[in-house]
Amino acid sequence: YQRRVHGDKYSCPEKGLCEPWRLSLFTLKDTLQLFCTSTQNPQVAIRDAFPKSIHHYLILPRLFDEITNSGTLELLTPHHVPLIEAMLLRAERIIHTLPHSVKIRTGFHALPSMKLLHMHVISDDYEGSHMNKPKHWNSFTTPFFLPAEFVLASLREHGRLALEVAPLEDLLKQPLSCPLCGTPATSFGGRAHQFKRLLEHYRTRCTARSIMDNQSNNGSTRGGEDSTIASCHTIPSCTTTTQEENTRV
Prior knowledge:
Blueprint: E1 5-6, E2 9-12, E3 16-18, H1 26-36, E4 43-47, E5 56-61, H2 66-70, H3 81-96, E6 104-109, E7 119-123, H4 134-141, E8 145-147, H5 148-158, H6 165-173, H7 191-205, H8 207-215, H9 227-233
Helix pairs in contact: 3-5
């Protein structure tokens, strides 16, 4: 990517100009490659600098090509199946360290806002410090979030992912609702408080969630803290903030 400045934007070959924060993961690229040469992990796990849940990690590949640099899922081919499989295995290592009561989802945003291929490993509590916009909610609780297994199956069976941009963009703008019981946010009063009350409903009052939580094996653990995540989190660029961080999905 040419880092040629046009006002407050950079040049991106496939999309013209884009905001600098969309290229934030590229600031990690060289550091991650150097870091990983001394480990046996072909993929790198870092904590999301803008977490949408209590547990929110990103899995990034150590080796990059033009397609993974773009982060565009539609450009993936069967050649990338081993890469996605390896990213899933890295995610499993993280999941193994968490309590069994923590429900984890692994997947990709259908239309990622940031360049560089990255897989989300996220708990379904959505209590992260940066879950503060309706589109953040919809990006993880609607089909906009593609499970990693779906991406793998599509590449294996069809050789590609066929995604329709317009309907996917509409998912981010659709009315908010509880993903478990379907209760619309409009039932929680005035518009100014709907998002906050929806979060409260989902986290503490949703009957469907209470049933699921009661079925969980509370208190048991899968393992200890994954030290390789902690090491990656010490890379300064992982926590670099941007002026427009709240516009990110």
